[in-house]
Amino acid sequence: MNIPRRLGAVAAWAARHARIVLAVALVLAVGAAVGATRIPTDAGVGTLVDSDTSTYQATQRVRQVFGEEPVVVLAQGDLQRLILTDNIFRLLRLEGCLSGKVPEGAKPLPGACAELAELDPVEFLSGPATFLNEAVVQIDAQLQRLAQHVPAERLQEFLLAVATKYGITSAPSIDNEEFVATVVFDLSRARGTPKARLSYLFPNSHSAQIVIRLKPDLSQDDRHRAIGLIEAAVAETAPRQACAENGTAAPCFVLKGGSYVVSGAPVVVDGLSRALKDALLILFAVALVVMALTLALVFRSRLRLLPLAIALAAAAIVFGLLGLAGGSLTMASIAVLPILIGLAVDYAIQFQARFDEAESTGLPGAEAARAAATSGGPTIAIACLATAAGFLALQLSPTPMIRSFGRLLVAGVLIAFVLALTAGSAALSRRPKSPRRTAPRRGAPERLLSLAVSGPQLVLGIGLALAVIGWGVGTQIKTVSDVRSLAPQNLPAVRDLDTLQEATGVSGELDVSVEAPHLTDPATIEWMAAFKQRVLRANGFSGEDPSCLDAEVCPGPALSDFLTRGGPVTRQGIDATLSALSPYALRQVAPIDPRTGEVGHDALISFGIRAQSLQDQQALVDRVRSEIGTPGSEGGPPAGVEVRLAGLPVIAAESATDLSSSRYWLALAGLVAVALVLLAVYRSFLRALVPLVPTVLATGWASLLLWLTGIPLNPMSAALGALTIAIATEFGVILAGRFQEERGEDGVEAALRRAYARTGAAVLASGATAVAGFAVLVASEIQMLRDFGFVTVIDLFAALAGVMLVLPAALVWIEARR
Questions:
Q1: Where exactly are the structural domains of the chain?
Q2: Measuring CA to CA, which residue among 730, 754, 757, 759 is closest to residue 744?
Q3: Burial environment of residue 643 by CB neighbours within 10 A (0 to 12, 13 to 18, 19 or more)
């Protein structure tokens, strides 16, 4: 049995068992849709780079050893007032609450603090009050050791010399203004200026910050809950007796003359992903209404909304399968929707148009379904296979989420085809018979056809010229990747990120991972110190008065900060300093190995960076990487020491670079895959070439339109080049296939007019439906979604223009030369 007869048999069987088929399709779609609502969103690094890359492995290593990217609680206000008054105790209470660590025998404050203690999401916290309190503890411990080993007279002489040098006349404590000022402030600079090496805690004279690293193994829900609890604790204003002042209950954390802001990469990613998800649900509901209205207006058939129902069922099943497979929603998987719905609507419309033709000859439901599938099924199947092959080419992408995007689309088009063939045939066979069939009116497809066949050389020439211009200017299309521009401006996470950057000059962290068999070797310590200084100088943090507000990077903590103080670095000095440092002091730069009680093999050098475009971020990453050098060479780390850049900023920048550089060759690979499938099916170079002509030209037109409109690409819309290829290929194969069916003795033009009268209207209806639906996104207040909608509409328009104008022109031109 040949393929047309097999397809016809399947459609006839579905029509005869319509109730069962529709019930199964409904159950699958509804069940899958319910399951799809529970799919988690994923903005993790695993969607951006492969797990076998050096950057990914370094990032995972840093997260396992040191914790996630920092959540930052910014304390705004005059720094002297923040730390030289009783505000320091409010900061100390807040830091204790946020850490989730409760001293033995004590109880946490009720509310967010108690919930944080129960959830225990924090790997490490560093804050102004904790830092100063730890300094007091360490000084006390050292004095006790000295008292045990040094004669009393010499100890008194030593303490007197220290007091004279630093102006400390009483015992160190966090409420000792002399002590705190000596530890925090640079006494050689303007009053209130903090020491540059402490900028990660005291960025400038009007701010301090608490740095919180969450545990790396938190689920997405637990991470969201932890961030929410941190925000709730910071916003706590309820008076509590436990924090009474002068016998009166008072708020525990509220600063006098200061305020808090919670920000950092985890906060922004969490806020943006949830804002996107919520906005998409609303916009998608509106888009469905608009698509339904458009389909009702442009598709002249009974059960006009059936194609949209089939498309929605296909989308639901695809995302339901994604959930069953343990997948998650990424920006790229969201971009699957317009492509899948556009293709699925067209499959269903094409089958329905064929069914209408067969039914108009008097065939009953099951036989009309058989005739429709036998005549139109093979062409639609070829279009489906060619489109799937184009999507399979996306498996060559270096970006995991683009490969996942391709796999979802391959599954989606196959499911859509099967649903259109089975559920579509079943539903059409159950509809009431039409009393009469109205003759088709001359519409847009026929008018466009007349234009194309009247001057095919002119149409092809102009089309090619515009495409060449589009391919040329396409490289100049701007890509926007600064999260502050893409996100809704009223999103609290974005406003707080702006506040953090304006106050400190920093809104993120770039990490440098150092692994060494002997991390405390003097040569390794000296290299770390020199490397850090080179990076700071190369990026503007240098001179007599360095400022994080002006520089590209800001110094974070490093192990070398503790071990290099101007003199020679020796093994004896290193050991002496390390023995005096607590595990807490080393935790954020080089944790103690619990098995040996000594510094382990991992160290972290961190730099604060500002929010910027991913292109600028990549340039910064390249500059930092260039300062590392080759191990064992002059200026490079000692032999055996592995140095790697890590963190979300590094991964995001490298992923954007990969995405941008692969956009064109992936589109070319998709076209080659489509061509090979068409050549294998048709076994004719000319027949395979014809549908590709409008597809190739449409890619150039889409780029030209984007360039002319000035609409930038973003990480969500950059993958939509596949949309132009997919839609243009499908429409082209279907219309070219119908032309071959209609060819007779009356010539090429007459065959084209019959093909466009019967199939062109269906193609235009499906295209118009998709365009109308995704034009709704243009009204979004989120620039990422708004630009995504613009790019989708432009790609669909280019694909439609290609098949309506270029395809008939190409057919006339080729046939004239046979």
A1: 3-47+270-484+653-816, 70-263, 517-640
A2: 754
A3: buried
Partnered with residue 212 across adjacent β-strands are 71, 125
Task: Give me 358's structure tokens.
Answer: 């067969």
Say if residue 445's pLDDT is above 80. no
Report residue 322 CA to chain centroid gap. 18
Neighbours of 517 (CB within 10 A): 10
C-alpha 584/C-alpha 241 separation (Å) is: 30
Residue-wise pLDDT for 247-268, tens only, equals 899 999 999 999 999 998 889 8
Q: What is the CATH number of domain 3-47+270-484+653-816?
A: 1.20.1640.10
The pLDDT assigned to 581 comes to 82
Chain centroid to Cα 687, Å, comes to: 40
Is the pLDDT confidence value at 160 over 90?
A: no
- pTM of the predicted protein model: 0.80
Sign of CA dihedral 403, 409, 415, 418: negative
Q: How far apart are CA 122 and CA 517, in angstroms?
A: 28
456 within 8 A of 693, measured Cβ to Cβ: no
Whole-number average pLDDT of the chain: 85
Nearest one of 523, 323, 303 to 434, comparing CA atoms: 303
> How far is Cα 457 from Cα 810, in angstroms, rounded to an integer?
8
**Beta-bridge partner residues of 523:** none
DSSP percent split of the chain into helix, strand, coil, nearest 5: 65, 10, 25
Q: What is the pLDDT of residues 294-325, one digit of tens each?
A: 888 888 788 888 999 999 999 999 999 988 88
797 Ramachandran zone, left/alpha/beta (phi>0; psi -120 to 50):
alpha
Tokens of 26: 């409904």
User: Which is nearest to 655 in space by CA: 408, 398, 483?
Assistant: 398
Does position 442 have pLDDT exceeding 60, yes or no? Answer: no
In angstroms, the CA 653 to CA 486 distance is 16
Q: Is the separation of the CB atoms in 452 and 809 below 8 Å? A: yes
CA dihedral over 546, 551, 554, 555, signed as positive or negative: negative
**Spatial distance between the Cα atoms of 419 and 409, rounded to a whole number of angstroms:** 15
Taking the alpha carbons at both ends of the chain, their separation in whole angstroms is: 33
Distance CA 276, CA 279 (A): 5
User: Phi and psi of 717, rounded to 5°?
Assistant: -95, -15
* Count of positions (residues) in the chain: 818
Residue type, 309: A
Q: At what angle do helices 306-324 and 400-430 cross, to 10 degrees?
A: 140
